[in-house]
Fold serine C-palmitoyltransferase.
Amino acid sequence: RIGHMTDGSCHFLANCSLYKKPFLEYYEETPLLVAVLTYMGYGILTIFGYLRDFLRHWNIEKCHVAREREEQKDFVPLYQDFENFYTRNLYMRIRDNWNRPICSVPGAKMDVMERVSHDYNWTFEHTGKVVKDVINMGSYNYLGFAENTGACADAAVECTKKYGAGVSSTRSEIGNLDIHEELEQLVARFLGVESSMAFGMGFATNSMNIPALTGKGCLILSDELNHASLVLGARLSGSTIRVFKHNNMQSLEKLLRDAIVNGQPRTHRPWKKILILVEGIYSMEGSIVRLPEVIALKKRYKAYLYLDEAHSIGALGPNGRGVVDYFGLDPKDVDIMMGTFTKSFGAAGGYIGGKKELIDYLRWHSHSALYATSMSPPVAQQIITSMKIIMGEDGTTLGADRLSQLSENTTYFRRKLHEMGFILYGNDDSPVVPLMLYMPAKIGAFGREMLKRNIGTVVVGFPATPIIESRARFCVSAAHTREMLDTVSASAALHC
Ligand SMILES: Cc1ncc(COP(=O)(O)O)c(C=O)c1O
């Protein structure tokens, strides 16, 4: 394997004792010819885009997109920015690859509603037909708990009979059910922390809790590839934000050192606090955070650490307890443990775990605790049941089996694609598998051709990725069988 490979070497310490096993991640550089062809592809699309915008301007071509109202024509344009240009002229050509409605549980296989467009993807019509049994390589269903049968579904049904589906109040009013408290105690036990709080939405868990923790005069050090919810939370907090290179400990240490040496701009007062924001698994890169090094740095420079385990909780570690479990670290070394229930638990919502003082503080200071309706009871039940299965508290080995199946499937699928010559990104142990496509034309073609073969994939391009790094992003699940993974890899080989 060539390209940029990061191994277990520690950046700032002479020995590698922080890692108990080799830490291997691959980011092959874009081959020069591919980069040139990709830029040419975007260049041609851009030229045609400007041409079509010109035709639309003179009403020669019908304009479907939002435009300024006639009476506001002399205003500064509201819609004509570059991203809009991209949406109108590039994204529209391949728009059929996204927002496809599905009409089944998003398990290992799913049913997709067939659509057609008669106006080049501006609008879609359902044909009434359903494409059955499409292999689902897109859902974050790492442990296969997105199910409509089995223990979790049964428990959720019983729970709905008891509580109904909605709560109609916030936690601080009449929306604090016993099941929420049970869930929070279980999550704290699962994570190995003193206390936890559950929220109805993962995105809001980040965007509403970060502002409760930091504010003006505080410094946030954020990985450049952090999720939008972390970025929004950081911005809403009013803190100063500095961004370090993805998973790059030298870059993080440089920012930490600068922050300590120079303090706040102009006044040079020390920062009130420094908060490092990282994720467990990065969902576009398939990378795993270098947590042992981040913890060593945060201790050395006395900064706080906020870890978002949305994709790693349930999906990593011998006990499925996320990236802390994966590296064999102490959860107490992470100040704020955040995660979502939307992926491995097949449910909805998010959590924050940590010291009791932290959680008690958030209960009274977080907007998502005070102003948002609490989690739907059947959702809470789905999490409780699936988490107990993972912990083996249901008295079976089902959870352990799913964890080892996920790990086996990940290794098998990644190895198979590597052997076929595909360029993959990320960590060997990551169930998020980005397969590089590079060229804009391939984004649409890959998604469509895979669907023709009954495989549902997520394809991703600019602005979600750098312009020359378009990719297909597979999410491996414990529910996938060998045959499914073989079908997917063989079909991918046909179309790349
Ligand atoms: C890292 C990360 N954090 C937070 C979220 C938001 O979680 P949710 O989708 O559960 O609202 C996501 C969503 O994918 C995510 O990837």
Remarks:
- The mean pLDDT is 93.
- Residues 155 and 252 are 45 Å apart (CA to CA).
- The chain has 15 helices and 16 strands.
- The longest strand covers residues 125-136.
